[in-house]
UniProtKB/TrEMBL annotation:
It comes from Silicimonas algicola. Keywords: Hydrolase, Metal-binding. One of its GO terms (biological process) is cytosine catabolic process. This is Cytosine deaminase. It comes from the Bacteria. Gene3D superfamilies: Metal-dependent hydrolases, Urease, subunit C, domain 1. SUPFAM superfamilies: Metallo-dependent hydrolases (SSF51556). InterPro entries: Amidohydro_3 (IPR013108), Metal-dep_hydrolase_composite (IPR011059), Metal_Hydrolase (IPR032466), Metallo-hydrolase_Enzymes (IPR052349). GO terms for molecular function: cytosine deaminase activity; isoguanine deaminase activity; metal ion binding.
Length: 422
């Protein structure tokens, strides 16, 4: 691990950074960055030649599931499908999700995110009673424990079809979320009374001054249009707080004119969209003994063209919804670039991993400008193709101007949770 003095200014000479982060139009610009007293400074210092090494601000991962993470060894998806994931998680949650179990897996996940260079995370938290009274106190404790390393937000999660009366049966959970300073969330399915359920949901959130976050149309069924229902309702009721929608896979299967018309409504409603390409690639279009034809990624280029705030995030990690992953946002960048053809486009795609998710969640914006906290990642790569060609396992994570230990936690730390006989 590279290190430097901390008792005076240090200047990293000849580094490559996205031009948009320092007020330039260049896709990548060469500049110097001086670190002094944990911040980026304007003065010179002891020079370290960086040979055009790339620097990115630390990441924001705006859609994760820390409460589900790493249960795969005891609860693997039996067939790799979405229904298989739902049923497997439900069974494991009922059998195993004690405060101790959830805390240990959350802690492990945060260690991974920290070592990879993430500074802020929004996590969804399964909140169907009685799990809400188990997991939310754990989240609050973890948020406090990690406050000086990773800023945490929590968003509750239930299926819109899991309660008979959203307005009545979700109210106690909404109170828990409000007391924790969280975000009210829900998975939307194409149920007959979805609009009424959404009205009750927005009422709960509005009464508690909560932002909202939805899992939307995580299917390749072209008839699923819950995204459009949400956007229409936001406009109808004049909702002014932030609304985030994730997945939106069915857009990729719809008639193009219909999909684009829906995006016009989404843009008008001002929704934030987060695409989860790795999880969608794993679950969508999976059929036994058949090669998948469709990727499941949503229409990010078309969203960008309409001014919609588009981001990418990790989603699930080593659980039945996604068997892999390590909360490494660089991996998300690499895979999303390939899956969604972010390269060779006019989309300012680095913002979708840095500035856009911070804006959607209300986190501090990324910055490499003078006065900003010196929280950034140094890569040996000098340009995008070098960055994405390798996993960059030797990256240097700088927090408050000091390189941190990037040793990843050993999976053996979780062995006692996976084998009930241990």
């Amino acid at each position: 691990m590279r290190s430097w003095r901390t008792d005076g200014p240090v200047r990293l000479r000849n580094v490559s950074v996205p031009g948009s982060l320092i007020g330039l139009s260049d896709e990548l610009a060469t500049t110097d960055i001086t670190i002094h007293q944990g911040r980026i400074a304007d003065r010179g210092g002891v020079d370290i030649e960086m040979d055009r090494a790339m620097i990115l601000p630390c990441f924001v991962d705006m859609h994760t599931h820390l409460d589900k993470g790493h249960i795969w060894p005891r609860a693997g998806n039996p067939d790799g499908t979405f229904p298989g994931a739902l049923s497997t998680v439900a069974a494991d949650r009922q059998a195993n999700w004690s405060p101790e179990d959830v805390a240990a897996r959350m802690e492990f996940s945060l260690k991974c995110a920290w070592a990879h260079g993430t500074r802020a995370i929004r996590t969804h938290i399964d909140s169907l009673a009685p799990q809400d009274e188990i997991s939310w106190p754990v989240f609050v404790e973890m948020r406090s424990k990690w406050a000086d390393r990773i800023v945490l937000q929590g968003s509750s999660l239930i299926g819109c079809d899991s309660l008979d009366d959203i307005g009545r049966d979700y109210a106690d959970t909404a109170d828990i979320v409000a007391a924790a300073g969280g975000v009210l969330g829900m998975v939307t399915y194409d149920v007959p009374d979805l609009r009424d359920r959404l009205i009750d949901f927005f009422t709960l959130a509005g009464e508690r001054d909560l932002e909202v976050d939805f899992h939307v149309d995580e299917t390749l069924d072209a008839s699923s249009e819950t995204l459009r229902t949400i956007a229409d309702l936001v406009l109808e009721i004049g909702w002014t707080r932030a609304v985030t929608v994730g997945h939106c896979c069915s857009l990729s299967a719809q008639d193009e004119a219909r999909a684009l018309d829906t995006l016009d409504v989404v843009a008008k409603a001002g929704l934030n969209v987060v695409s989860l390409p790795m999880c969608n690639l794993y679950l969508q279009d999976r059929q036994a003994d058949r090669t998948p034809r469709r990727r499941g990624v949503t229409l990010v280029h078309e969203m960008f063209a309409r001014g919609i705030n588009v981001s990418f995030a990790s989603d699930n990690t080593r659980d039945p919804f996604y068997a892999y992953g390590d909360l490494d946002m660089l991996e998300v960048m690499r895979q999303a670039t390939r899956i969604a053809h972010l390269d060779h486009s006019e989309m300012n795609w680095p913002d979708a991993f840095l500035r856009n998710p911070a804006e959607a969640c209300g986190f501090a914006p990324p910055s490499l400008a003078e006065g900003a906290t010196a929280d950034f990642i140094i890569f040996r790569a000098r340009n995008w193709t070098e960055l994405f060609a390798r996993p960059q396992s030797d990256r240097i994570i700088v927090r408050r101007g000091v390189p941190i230990d990037t040793t990843l936690p050993d999976y053996a730390e979780l062995d006692h949770l996976m084998d009930p006989d241990q």
